[in-house]
Write a structure and sequence with these properties.
Layout lengths: L1 E5 L7 H4 L5 E4 L7 E4 L15 E4 L9 H7 L2 E3 L6 H16 L2 H9 L8 H8 L12 E5 L3 H12 L3 E5 L5 H6 L5 E3 L2 H7 L2 E4 L13 H5 L5 E5 L8 H10 L2 E6 L12 E3 L8 H21 L18 E7 L4 H10 L4 E9 L2 E8 L5 H10 L2 E4 L1
Helix pairs in contact: 3-6
């Protein structure tokens, strides 16, 4: 029985893949083979030496110390696209909140009482204070054309918006999946100059943190609406607040509140709710469970954020090797081939890391394992 520790409540759908005849999904274990996590902060968490993997039921992995896990040979997975539809729907809501003054109108209406004028009369008299703009015919700039960005593009095009998109890491497959109505630009400044609305769908990295700042806002249209349902670190908070107060930015809608953003007129904040639907939680849990099972039982790596992604059908006794050295494939092959006949090999690289799968005609002996373990980061006999 293999223990998998869940660090957050997680959908019971994981049990459909990680079945109870082989896996024990539990809250604590001295020797877990893996962890399931959602928002739990693992930076100060003691990951057991027995663990080979962590699966994050969601896209972002800021709560997981990736360098440390890589050094330990722990594969970290995420679930890209599993919650994309849920986030897309929240972004559509945010765009409508940005165009129309729905939030302040609701707040005003909730405070009404019958007085000299009945509520109905007050509503008719007061509604002109909440005039807003339609999104139909407006231009939406999407920064980040991953799974969520592409779904947002499809939805707003159906609602009559024009779309321009920017993503310096757009793959050929992702480009092919884009709605042909999306104009893809190679300079983010074109997004700033042309967009009536801007929505962010990028991770917080050294190159993106604080990207919405005084300089980038100055390049935007007067009265632009900015939606951020991605990461709070993308904002320079002081610059964004200043731009809203001056009217340069007409409205900011974000599900990433902080002390600078709350209670500022024309900044609408709410909790980070993008993936907070039963459907998204089920999708993420199911994907995370499949990733863990395939890695634990077959050594296959799909949707890892720190390992090279390598997948191969199992045709023999399997050994996997994670290396951060040059000539890793050659060195590992020389060691393994002295102990068994190699039936198949698959490998991939990610930066300085190499991940190798060997399928052999027989299991390697302890001496061969020790020789591999001495030279490489992580060796598994599956």
């Amino acid at each position: 029985m293999k223990d998998i520790v869940r660090l957050n409540p997680i959908s019971s759908l994981v049990n459909d893949t990680l079945t109870s005849d082989t896996y024990n999904i539990c809250d604590n274990s001295d020797n877990p083979v893996a962890y399931l996590v959602r928002s739990f902060d693992m930076h100060d968490y003691n990951v057991a030496d027995s663990a080979v993997a962590i699966a994050r039921a969601g896209a972002g992995v800021n709560n997981i110390p990736l360098p440390e896990m890589t050094a330990k040979g722990v594969c970290v997975f995420n679930t890209p696209g599993a919650n994309a539809n849920a986030v897309k729907e929240l972004v559509i809501c945010a765009l409508l909140l940005g165009g129309r003054k729905i939030y302040p109108a609701i707040t005003w209406a909730q405070g009404l009482e019958d007085g000299e004028l009945k509520i109905e009369k007050q509503v008719e008299k007061g509604k002109k204070a909440f005039i807003g703009q339609e999104i139909f015919g407006k231009t939406l700039g999407i920064i980040g054309l991953g799974a969520i960005g592409r779904l947002v593009a499809d939805a707003v095009i159906a609602l009559g918006m024009k779309v321009i998109g920017y993503d310096p890491f757009l793959s050929d497959n992702a480009r092919k999946a884009l709605n042909p109505a999306v104009k893809v630009v190679t300079d983010v400044n074109e997004i700033y100059a042309a967009s009536d609305f801007i929505t962010l769908h990028v991770p917080a990295t050294d190159s993106t943190k604080g990207c919405i700042n005084k300089e980038s806002i100055a390049k935007m249209k007067d009265g632009v609406v900015i939606v951020n349902c991605a990461r709070g670190e993308l904002f320079n908070n002081a610059d964004v607040v200043e731009a809203v107060k001056s009217g340069k930015v007409s409205r900011v809608i974000t599900d990433l509140p902080n002390k600078d953003m709350v209670r500022v007129e024309n900044i609408v904040t709410f909790p980070h709710l993008g993936a907070s639907t039963p459907e998204a939680e089920d999708n993420c849990a199911a994907m995370a469970a499949k990733e863990l099972k395939d890695f634990i039982e077959n050594g296959n790596v799909v949707n890892s954020v720190n390992f090279p992604c390598v997948k191969a059908d199992k045709v023999g006794e399997r050994v996997t090797v994670l290396a951060n050295s040059e000539d890793a494939v050659k060195v590992a092959t020389d060691i393994v081939s002295k102990a068994a006949n190699i039936k198949a090999t698959a490998s991939g690289t990610r930066g300085e890391l190499t991940y190798i799968i060997f399928d052999l005609d027989k299991k390697i002996d302890d001496n061969t394992y020790a020789a591999l373990a001495e030279k490489f980061v992580k060796v598994r006999v599956i």
